[in-house]
Design brief:
Blueprint: E1 8-12, H1 18-27, E2 33-37, H2 49-65, E3 70-73, H3 76-81, H4 83-94, E4 99-101, H5 104-114, E5 119-124, H6 126-131, H7 133-141, E6 147-153, H8 157-162, H9 169-185, E7 191-194, H10 203-208, E8 216-218, H11 220-234, H12 236-239, E9 248-252, H13 256-267, E10 273-275
Bound molecules: D-glutamic acid.
D-glutamic acid (DGL) is lined by residues 12-14, 16, 42-45, 75-77, 125, 128, 158, 196-198.
Length: 278
């Protein structure tokens, strides 16, 4: 990236954020994007608050150093555990012009608008569940009208996706088990947030275990993309700092030989990446 290119940075612990990047590129193809996957240190979902914060800040700084003025944490675990501290403590010291946004708020806004029963369920990593970010944000946003009635941690789902086990008997076992656990706790859930950017890859299995067709499954990619378009419209001073040359570049902390074929599957086209050390 040359220094006069200012892509929108998109960060995830691994491949999951590509489900968000895919929608960004579809919705706003004129913008430049720089994806960073911390594949060498994934998963984040079972790591402590401090470690997720430290890794996420390293990634954000890397993206800033490579010209990004705006970074999206396309990772619920990082959004839940690191976003607020980065926004409140680190950003004021780094630059007044740069911004970091997450994926939780747009998902919560959507769920609050959609639900009729007022019962929202969340599937997420253990870290996101433990942070209680979804229940807190939803309660705040809807002024107590809507609640996350049940959260179900799905610690096996990210390894299933990262290890290309989607559709296997083992994968089906864990998806069925966790979906049953969720709906047994609250059968009135009518809106289900997939609170991890890896989970859309398991959507076919997830749909098999919904108790009825009326349950709305909230996949984040499209919602976050629409929310970003709206954000840039409302903040022309930030939009001005994002260059529009239609470029999409990829960075990974793993060997590129491992990253490229899998990322190409997610993006449905050939991906070339560069390796970075954080
Ligand atoms: N895809 C990420 C999320 O949205 C993180 C998964 C992980 O690293 O555990 O939470």
């Amino acid at each position: 990236m040359t220094s006069n290119v200012h892509p929108i940075g998109v960060f995830d612990s691994g491949y999951g954020g590509l489900t968000v990047l895919r929608e960004f590129v579809k919705t706003m193809p004129q913008y430049d994007f720089l994806y960073l996957g911390d594949n060498a240190r994934t998963p984040y979902g079972t790591r402590s608050f401090d470690v997720v914060y430290e890794y996420t800040l390293q990634a954000v700084n890397e993206l800033f150093n490579r010209g990004c003025q705006l970074v999206i944490l396309a990772c619920n675990t990082a959004s839940a555990k690191a976003l607020r501290t980065i926004q409140q403590r680190d950003l004021p010291l780094i630059s007044a012009e740069k911004r970091v946004l997450g994926v939780i708020r747009p998902s919560v806004e959507y769920a609050a608008k959609y639900t009729r029963s007022g019962h929202v369920g969340v599937l997420a990593t253990s870290g996101t569940v433990a942070s209680k970010s979804y229940p807190i944000e939803l309660e705040k946003w809807s002024e107590g009208r809507v609640k996350v009635t049940t959260q179900q941690a799905c610690p096996m789902w990210v390894p299933i996706v990262e290890n290309q086990e989607i559709g296997t008997t083992g994968a089906e076992y864990f998806v069925e088990r966790d979906m049953k656990r969720l709906f047994e706790q609250d059968p009135k859930i009518d809106t289900l947030i997939l609170g991890c950017t890896h989970y859309p890859l398991l959507i076919d299995s997830i749909r098999n275990y919904l108790p009825n067709r009326k349950v709305e499954v909230v996949e984040q990619g499209k919602i976050v993309a629409e929310s970003l378009v709206d954000y840039l419209y409302r903040h022309p001073e930030i939009d001005r700092n994002c260059t529009k040359g239609g470029m999409v570049d990829y960075l990974t902390t793993e060997q590129v030989e491992l990253f490229e074929p899998r990322a190409s599957l997610f993006m449905n086209k050939e991906v070339k990446a560069r390796k970075v050390h954080l």
